[in-house]
């Protein structure tokens, strides 16, 4: 078992990582002093795999249901279940359930106690920590949201046994990102075969970053490593590429750009390439037009007044933000990724 504390401006909470936390969730709540009324929020897929006997709010499965409409349905469930200010909302699911249930918990009755039980690798190492909750609008992803810190995050690695391999690979892209940002141990094949160790180390990277920058004013931008390229690839493929696939190749692109600009020693991009290939994620963007990808990047809200802005690497665990990178360098990297 590991217990990792997280300090936030609103107080501290803990992340518990232990096998079996979910199979005996009542016991888990008793052990950590969580008494009183609860409402679990989950989705239809998880409800089928892990049938609930306690009261729950149910949402449909998929990013397209991360909407205000779903939040409204959850409010209706909360009202029907007699939720009051002390009722604890438990999000049991991947990042979509966590973000949506968290937003409902942040807003219903101006805020209810909230607990995260992440079930996907991505939610375990990334979205359940940091306090960002919210939903998408037709105009864009995550446009409506709040900061809502959980009281606890309970991570049960046993839940990963039912996670589809594709979702595992997507989470691994973020794990590699955390490794490149701050902890080379995450790139070690032996550690990658030990889910508990992998989760603890990967989450520790995110904790360290969000503790130093709880409201996303500076360093938290480092978590965008590979994401400037990645978001653009998601966009130009009309979301045919998953987030993890796009971020994986985005990490290779960021490493190649770092090398091309002479920021890091040659060889880093090969290390990243090998990692992404081993996970089984795409390593090329054959057929995707570099100019279109560049145009999509330029719409990034982090590119202030069209000035390009990339998170790059001076080496492993040495991220750096670089502005006004020459377009020609970016295009060269994108062209290389075609072959
Ligand atoms: N709040 C944040 O800081 C933050 C950070 C990163 C990502 N996110 C958000 O997270 C979301 C992506 O999260 P995700 O990758 O977990 O996607 P997801 O929640 O859609 O889960 C992926 C799929 O796996 C299924 N699933 C999850 N756990 C399972 C399990 N144990 N067994 C079987 N199936 C399981 C889900 O039902 C779903 O079909 C996005 O909406 C993204 O914006 C938020
Ligand atoms: Zn991501």
Could you characterize the architecture of this molecule?
There is one protein chain. The protein is built from 13 helices and eleven strands. It has 339 residues and is of the alpha/beta class. It has two domains: 2-163, Rossmann fold (3-Layer(aba) Sandwich), CATH 3.40.50; 219-336, Dehydroquinate synthase-like - alpha domain (Dehydroquinate synthase-like, alpha domain). The strands form three sheets. Strands 1-2-9-6-5-3-4 form a seven-stranded mixed beta sheet. The chain has a two-stranded antiparallel ribbon with strand order 7-8. Helix 10 (243-260) runs antiparallel to helix 11. The structure holds nicotinamide-adenine-dinucleotide and zinc ion (ZN).
Kindly summarize this structure in a few lines.
This protein has 339 residues and is an alpha/beta fold.
Beta-strand residue fraction: 15-25%
The unreliable regions are none
Secondary structure: number of strands: 11
At the third CATH level, what is the topology name of the largest domain? Rossmann fold
Q: How would you spell out the order of helices and strands?
A: EEHEHEHEHEHEEEHHHHHHHEEH
What are the SSEs and their pairings?
Blueprint: E1 2-8, E2 11-17, H1 25-31, E3 38-43, H2 44-49, E4 56-59, H3 68-80, E5 88-93, H4 95-107, E6 114-118, H5 121-127, E7 132-137, E8 140-147, E9 152-155, H6 165-182, H7 189-192, H8 195-212, H9 227-236, H10 243-260, H11 268-279, H12 290-298, E10 309-313, E11 319-323, H13 327-336
Parallel strand pairs: 2-9, 3-4, 3-5, 5-6, 6-9
Antiparallel strand pairs: 1-2, 7-8, 10-11
Helix pairs in contact: 3-4, 5-6, 5-8, 6-8, 6-10, 6-11, 9-10, 9-12, 10-11, 10-13, 12-13
This protein binds nicotinamide-adenine-dinucleotide and zinc ion.
């Amino acid at each position: 078992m590991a217990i990792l504390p997280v300090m936030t401006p609103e107080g501290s909470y803990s992340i518990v990582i232990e096998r079996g936390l979910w199979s005996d969730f009542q016991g888990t709540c008793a052990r950590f002093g969580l008494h009183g009324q609860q409402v679990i929020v989950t989705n239809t897929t998880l409800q089928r795999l892990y049938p609930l006997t306690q009261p729950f709010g149910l949402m449909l499965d998929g990013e397209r249901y991360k909407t205000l409409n779903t939040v409204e349905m959850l409010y209706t469930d909360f009202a029907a279940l007699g939720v009051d200010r002390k009722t604890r909302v438990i999000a049991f699911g991947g990042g979509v359930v966590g973000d949506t249930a968290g937003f409902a918990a942040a807003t219903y009755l101006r805020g209810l106690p909230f607990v995260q039980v992440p079930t996907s690798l991505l939610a375990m190492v990334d979205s359940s920590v940091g306090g960002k909750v919210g939903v998408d609008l037709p105009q864009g992803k995550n446009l409506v949201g709040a900061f809502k810190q959980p009281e606890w995050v309970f991570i049960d690695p046993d839940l990963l046994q039912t996670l589809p391999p594709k979702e595992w690979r997507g989470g691994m892209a973020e794990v590699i990102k955390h490794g490149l940002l701050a902890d080379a141990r995450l790139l070690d094949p032996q550690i990658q075969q030990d889910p508990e160790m992998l989760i603890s180390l990967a989450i520790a990277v995110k904790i360290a970053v969000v503790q130093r920058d709880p409201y996303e004013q500076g360093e938290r931008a480092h978590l965008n490593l590979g994401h400037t390229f990645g978001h653009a690839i998601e966009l130009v493929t009309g979301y045919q590429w998953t987030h993890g696939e796009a971020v994986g190749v985005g990490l290779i692109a960021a490493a190649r750009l770092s090398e091309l600009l002479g920021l890091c020693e040659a060889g880093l991009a090969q290390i990243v390439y090998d990692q992404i290939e081993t996970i089984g994620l795409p390593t090329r963007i054959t057929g995707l037009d570099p100019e279109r990808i560049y145009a999509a990047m330029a719409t990034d809200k982090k590119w202030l007044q069209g000035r390009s802005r990339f998170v790059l690497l001076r080496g492993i665990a040495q991220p750096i933000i670089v502005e006004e990178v020459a377009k020609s360098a970016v295009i060269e990297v994108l062209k290389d990724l075609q072959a």
